[in-house]
Specification:
single chain, 251 residues, alpha/beta, Alpha/beta knot, Trp Operon Repressor, Chain A, 9 helices, 9 strands, binds ligand 9WO
């Protein structure tokens, strides 16, 4: 999987390839990260990447010319490699990213992530070269870089052979639109609080059933929206419905 990131702060984005799961994936060549700095595509002595907004007001806007040159150079490089990649602009105005979008990206050859700074980029760049606009959620950051890093992290852990335990990415929260159950490790009792007995029972069927029940119960209580589909406002199997009822009785 190849990530191309267009950013004024490449050092910030490159940090994902230095540590953790993404760091290991980069070291094993399971992902490639290429950062492109629009400042390198300026032609004036001051290497100007921003300018004052038409219409006035505070802040600055990223200029179109160096951004267009950067994007087009990235696209050429990617196609020369025989690959396809969409250009995604990360901004709070975009469609909200979720786990199924992460999964879709993980099944592609690569993606080009465009990060804005200041008050944003000249809209004509979006019009000319951007395929989609994506958001993490309803808040403003100081730029798109952290959002790009979120996409890189979320996609990388879904790549086959990235996570040591082969199916831990598949087992976790959200594979089925459910929140994760609680987790415990030693000691068995901490400040008077014992680990739920079933988890120390060694009864793997009972443990799986308990975990499913907790997942269903927590999802119902904390994020009921996740259980609703377009057709159905509680799309659960008979078995899950029964487990959820059991949870609600005890909680
Ligand atoms: C600034 C601003 C100030 C007042 C009212 C609304 C405002 N919106 C913005 C704004 O969108 N600034 C952006 C800064 C311009 C594009 C890059 N920046 C950015 C991207 N901030 N936050 C993101 C982002 C990206 C993806 N998901 C969440 C946030």
């Amino acid at each position: 999987m190849r990530f191309d990131v267009i950013t004024l702060l490449p050092e910030l984005v490159e940090a994902v390839t230095q540590v953790g799961v993404t760091g290991r994936a980069a070291k094993r060549d399971l992902i490639e990260l290429h950062c492109w700095n629009p400042r390198d595509y300026t032609e004036d002595v001051h290497r100007t990447v921003d300018d004052r907004p038409y219409g006035g007001g505070p802040g600055m806007v990223m200029k179109a010319d160096c951004l267009l040159k950067t994007i087009r150079d990235v696209k050429q490089t990617v196609t020369d490699q025989g690959r396809q990649a969409k250009v995604i602009y990360l901004s709070p105005q975009g469609r909200q990213i979720n786990q199924s979008l992460m999964r879709e990206v993980s099944q592609t050859e690569g993606i080009i992530l465009l990060c804005g700074r200041y008050e944003g980029i000249d809209e004509r760049v979006v019009q000319l070269e951007v395929d989609e606009e994506w958001s993490l959620g309803d808040y403003v950051l100081s730029g798109g870089e952290l959002a790009a890093m979120v996409v890189i992290d979320g996609v990388t852990r879904l790549l086959p052979s990235v996570l040591g335990h082969d199916d831990s990415a598949e087992q976790d929260s959200f594979t089925e639109n459910l929140l994760d159950c609680e987790h415990y490790t030693r000691p068995e009792t901490l400040e008077g609080i014992a680990v739920p007995e079933v988890l120390t029972s060694g009864d793997h069927k009972a443990i799986a059933r308990w975990r499913r029940k907790q997942s269903l119960g927590r999802t119902f209580k904390r994020r009921p929206d996740l259980l609703k589909t377009e057709e159905n406002d509680m799309a659960l199997s008979k078995q899950d419905q029964a487990l959820l009822n059991e949870y609600l009785k005890d909680n």
